[in-house]
Amino acid sequence: MKPAVGTNLLSRLDGIIWGGQGASLSLWQARGIRVVRTLLLLIRDVVDGQLTLRAMSLVYTTLLSIVPLLALSFSVLKAFGVHNQIQPMLLNFLEPLGEKGEEVATSITTFIQNMNVGVLGALGLALLLYTAISLMQKIEESLNYIWHIQRPRSLADRFSRYLSVLMVGPILVFAALGITATVMNVETVRGLLAIEMLGQLVQTISRLTPYLLVIAAFTFVYMFIPNARVRLLPALIGGAAGGIAWQTAGWGFAAFVATSNQYAAIYSSLAILILFMIWLYLSWLILLFGASVAFYAQHPEYLYAGAGEPRLSNRMRERLALSTMALVTGRFVAGERTPSLTECIRLLGMPRHVLQTVVDALESEKLLLQSSDDPPLYLPGRDPALISVTQVLETVRSAGEERFLSPVDLPAAPAVDAVFERMRLALDTAVGGISLRDLAAQRSAAMPPMPPAAPAAREVLPGADGRSPP
Predict the structure, then answer these.
(1) Rounded average pLDDT over 243-259
(2) 240, 291 Cβ separation under 8 angstroms
(3) Would you say residue 314 lies in a domain?
(4) What is the per-residue DSSP string for 40-105?
(5) 309: exposed, middle or buried (C-beta count within 10 Å: 0-12, 13-18, 19+)?
(6) Is the pLDDT of residue 269 over 70?
(7) Cys-Cys with 297: which of 156, 234, 368, 381 at CB 3.0–4.6 Å?
(8) Which domain holds residue 59?
(9) Would 312 be classed as within a structural domain?
């Protein structure tokens, strides 16, 4: 009896969280359910293992690139006379390691100061730059995975962004710190701080400054690194979640290190390295966790139940392709502004990676083209009167056959081939005479009655080609 009650309770909770009663909920109830969905999916993403695997990959890349990365920053900051601030920044990052963090920071700083770039030669300098840039590339790949971005940036765009982060980033950080210190030492400001209320306010702000700096850094990464248009508010939400989690994890890890004397007894001198790697892993995992928060905040259409990403059935792929082409062609024929990918996602209510699969297939056959606008707008690849419905359907049904198996590679009995031929003829008879211009003309009116062969054709169409979803 009790198991049945528990099962019923879980079913009711599942229905409340993932049910489709959104229209009957108040604004605050809808927002509360959205927060619960986001938390459940964040737990799923961490348990699934992809975030942890990418965090471990970033730890390995960091160990290889931390010295070249700091050496480049050291060279840039040396020209401005503030290179001595690298060790305090490292100490701040490694503060959760306690006394062991001071040892790691001192060792890294000494190694950087003893590095002589002049004796490396052209090849050594190129390897130094590549090792430093590889960390930026790994970060971008991980964030692109979270944002479901399959197309990386162009090589020129990557080069300019990475160099701006490596060269200009340290200057901006230390300039901001220097300006803050200068302002705090101005006599007028010091006089204002003598006022009790203002002094307490400044003390409160100074205690919150580490949180604000980390949140600002995380927000900058989420907006600048992924190959996607990340809005400020979702990036700020992710930055706040990641920054607070990072500071809290720092306190917890510091307490762990203070009570982990057995590690030194077991691993001896390697204990410092192991603790350093654990802290790096937690830091990267928190960064990726915050990126997931920002992603779900900007794309609530991904808040769905079930494991893994949604996959399109053959029927949904065909329906989505026709809906996309009808949307683009309808606006084009009416002389209106054609939609971008983001607008198509919003209007069709489909996740980005799902729609991107269909759009890529249509672009490969030149049925869709992208304009040079920013962001790019979609246009019909040719006169809509020359694009038939059957062309669109055949394009999405055969997408990927040039890279994988094609129907020619699959031996079939003559009777099977005959069935598919009859299906093709029935489809062509039913809708072969309908063009995209016809769809555009009828977008605000009901479709005319189909010929008698249409129902039979539609019954066998979904999944008729036997191909699995992409």
Answers:
(1) 83
(2) no
(3) no
(4) HHHHHHHHHSHHHHHHHHHHHHHHHHHHHHHHHHHHHHHHTT-GGGHHHHHHHHTGGGTHHHHHHH
(5) exposed
(6) no
(7) 234
(8) 49-302
(9) no
